[in-house]
Amino acid sequence: xxxxxxxxxxxxxxxxxxxxxxxxxxxxxxxxxxxxxxxxxxxxxxxxxxxxxxxxxxxxxxxxxxxxxxxxxxxxxxxxxxxxxxxxxxxxxxxxxxxxxxxxxxxxxxxxxxxxxxxxxxxxxxxxxxxxxxxxxxxxxxxxxxxxxxxxxxxxxxxxxxxxxxxxxxxxxxxxxxxxxxxxxxxxxxxxxxxxxxxxxxxxxxxxxxxxxxxxx
Length: 217
Known about the structure:
The protein is an all-alpha fold. It is built from 8 helices and no strands.
């Protein structure tokens, strides 16, 4: 395991520490969704590592986390957009989950890497991020955008899923043709994952110190 991979596995820790020692209003929209996401990252990474060390195929967890991420981000963004944009989030999220499930059943086996599913998921979540920015600029409801935790979540999403969509799209092909290059790409993925988790940590920090009306439905 490379140094970057180790950092990628440990990078949810700042967000977890803020969650454990910060004070939050649990009734606020999005807090529970992001908390479940962070703790699921850690749990699945640990399980995948244990299974890999035991020589057991851990790829079913990649299928699970792909659907879990899409489900959580669908729940998260439906609280932060309105009107037709909220409808788009719900329809895309539901349709995406159905496609991911069918992909696992009929195309990419649960015992192989779900390259296509990861690309589909990334594109849908990126659309959610764009819809949020559209919501902000249309409604002009931000007095100071940098105080909004959703900005940091969305920025992390744009960074991570833009890069990971390309990496995952090439994964299965490179696995057969150029594994050395794939290892280099996976280091880039680790960097993207670190940036995403740091963005989530900033979001939790903003939730702790200034959870304002921007997060209302």
